[in-house]
Each structure stands twice: as structure tokens, then as C-alpha cells.
Amino acid sequence: MRVIFAGTPEFAAVALARIQAAGHTVTLVLTQPDRPAGRGMKLQASAVKQLALQHGIAVAQPRSLRLDGKYPDDSLAAQQAIHSAQADVMVVVAYGLILPQWVLDAPRLGCLNIHASLLPRWRGAAPIHRAIEAGDTQTGVTIMQMDAGLDTGAMLHIGTLPIAPDDTTASLHDRLADLGGGLILQVLVQAQAGLLTPLAQPEVGVTYAHKIDKAEAAVDWSQAAEVVARRVRAFNPFPGATGSLAGEVVKLWQAHVQTQVHDAQPGTVLSADAQGVRIACGQHVLCVTQLQRAGGKRLDAADFLRGFPLKPGQCLDAVVT
Prior knowledge:
27% of the residues lie in helices and 27% in strands.
């Protein structure tokens, strides 16, 4: 198959590597423009671009694909590149740009999307985060025939994965990326043989995984410890759940629930030792075992407390400013 690949982060790079290794001809890669990153804020290529360059694949980085949009020169150049690629199919994975109808129609077999949820649950930008945050016990990957809607296209293949009680977005991301890379190869084989059987998404069970906002990082200690623990896992590695003590922001990276009853004000430190920092929540107790000061490293509780001692009775602010 002649494939155009559109994607940006590491999740997408896994699929690109699998497609390339399977012997398909990737004629063009579309990815987001280089962005400033790191302490020096130097321009950095996306994971997909780096992989494409390693394999000598042509790369286009339009800021928009809308021919009537803000960047018409970008869009026209991308249109020429896409048509010149003469692709059978376009595979789209966490690309970051809306595909107008002319893009959807360009490849002979249309555009296939690898989406990290069991559609129609968790359409949108952050399905892995939201599944963990909501307490879902399973998730998966849906390969979808793209249409003009937001993750509304017909389903072509579905694979499921359990969500473990200690899964973070980081750990679940890696397993889903591997699953998606395998599923897209199966769908490409079916597409080449003309055996695709699209199935319309159910009209019931639709939920939206809205983009993660940094403002969501602040922990609300009045919530149940079970809810807070899920948010800690969902926001690892980004943006990191946060509390605030005496004006200093502390990130919480690992935590679990202790079901003891207490009558303390939510946010109060009940105890702190090498086994964890125990913080009162609206219901039950959150035991935080990995923390990080601003500008510091992630540390287990024992090492963190050596440099940032916490005492019972101290209270973490509910809102970080």
C-alpha cells in the first residue's frame, strides 16, 4: 500500500514505525510544525518527524490544511504534496489538525484514524487521561474511517485493554500505542483486499474527552480520596496533580487510597513518613508516595521529606495560584 501518514507525538510514531516495518510505502508524512521545548526553548521536531527523517520520508508541516484559512500558502503546498503522493490511504494518529473534506477525499481509500478509546466513548483530544480520571476499568483502540465529524466515523476494528488499578496515562499510553500499531496493520491488509466492513458508531454512550487544561492540575481536597487518586494517575505525566503548601507548589505523582475514617479538614496532613504523606480528603485518606518540589526531581516520600519536612496538622491549599 502507498500510505500518507499524519501524526505528531510518540503515540503516532509507534504506528508509523510498524507501518514502515511491515513493508508499506510511506510516501509522505504530515506532522505539526517544530515547537520550542526544554529549558532552552529550542525548536524541536515531533517524534513522527524525527522518525520520518531517519527513514528518508518526505515531510510536510503545514500550520493549516484549510484552503480558505489563515495560512493559504501552507495549505496549497500541502495539497500539492498530498496529491503528488498518490496514496492509497492516509493513516491519521494524534495529528493535531482538523482534516477538511478535500483531504478526506484525496486518498483512494480515504483516511483511517487510530483512536485510543472504545468509541463512541471518549471522542476528542484526551481519551487516555479521561478514561483513567473517570475510573473506567477498560479501554482500547478503535480504527475508524474518518468523516468530517469529531471522531464520528464508522468503526473498522476494535481492540480492548484492561485499565489496571495503578495505571497512569504514561503506562496506559504505551500499551495502547502498541495495540494501535498492530490493529492498523490488520486493517491495511483488509483494505488492500477490499474486505473492510465499516460499522456505524452507536448513538448511545457518546462521551467527550476534552483537552487537558493545566488549571485542572490543582487538587480539590474536598473530593473523595478515590477521585483524587484517579486524577493523580490521569495527570501523570501531564500536567501533574498539584497541591500548595505555604505558597509552594508540590506535584503529586504517585498515590493510593487508604479507607480510614477521619474528621480532619480536607487537605490536612495526617502523618508523613517514609511510606507516604497521608492527606485528609472529603472521604478517606490519600497516601502520596512520590512528590516533586518546583524545579526539583520526582522523589519518593522518604527522600522528599528530608528536604521538605511535613508535619501533622499542616494543610495543603485546595487551589494553586
